[in-house]
User: Fold Fe-S cluster assembly scaffold SufA from Methylocystis echinoides.
Amino acid sequence: MALAKMDVMTVSPAAAERVRGLLAKAADGEGLRVSVEKGGCAGMSYKMAIGAPLIGDEIIDFEGGRVIVDAGAVLYLLGTRMDVKTDQFSSTFVFENPNQTSACGCGESVELQPADPARLAAG
Assistant:
């Protein structure tokens, strides 16, 4: 019996709307590229940029938008929900990540552990 392919990350309707707005002037095939990089007081931070997919990246297409998960970030983002937090003066992407073990006090970086796909599939 084959296992069903699980999306690396889900995108909330609010995040999808924000992505569509960001991509309004992007070239065909480009998307919001999400990756993680070492840095910050907790060890890693999320990085986003408009770009084209590379070999090995995971692509999440939805009506009018695209999120590209960097191949090197897949295990850190598996099971994550991307959303938008809006307050009176700003709108920010937030990540509800089951692989996050802690975050710094300033909210700029997180500690992530690679996902265990078997654990996520069972849950």
User: Anything to note?
Assistant: The chain has a mean pLDDT of 81. The domain at 9-122 is CATH 2.60.300.12 (Hypothetical Protein Aq_1857; Chain: A;). The chain has three helices and nine strands. Residues 13-22 form the longest helix (10 residues).
